[in-house]
Amino acid sequence: MKGNSDDRISKLPEPILHHILSFLRAKSAARMSTLSKVLDSAWNSLPYLDFGEILWWLKDVNVVMDQTLASRKKHNISMQRFSLWLSYYACLSYDDRWIKILIACNIKELNLRVETHYYRGNFLYGSLPVAIFAAKSKCAEFAWI
């Protein structure tokens, strides 16, 4: 039996590719984008991003996040949903920059989870970027754990 190398996924319309990619974490969706030009185009215009947990000490992750969001802003991609879990409240310095880009992309739903840490009898808290409160669209679901 001869194998069929027909790429059926790349023949799907972009909205369907967006729907499929929206179920994946951003890292997995980006990996999928290397399979074809069509998937790369779908990834670069994907309005749903779930980055999962971001470890604040990994600088390359922050560069990837910066590039991904800057690309969305440059191409006027209207962001529908963005999810991020910051494992340490010090990440909010990066997050401020990212949130400003998301607001510029008219973000509809922002899911932000920030862990607090207990240190010498005190909980350590950061503060949300002021840009969130000035956003025209309603950003939703903040979790401080």
UniProtKB/TrEMBL annotation:
Alphabetized Pfam families for the sequence: F-box (PF00646)
Q: What is this protein called?
A: FBD-associated F-box protein
The UniProt entry, under InterPro entries, shows: F-box-like_dom_sf (IPR036047), F-box_dom (IPR001810), F-box_SCFL_complex_component (IPR053197)
Source domain of life: Eukaryota
What are the F-box domain coordinates in residue numbering? 9-47
Source lineage = Eukaryota, Viridiplantae, Streptophyta, Embryophyta, Tracheophyta
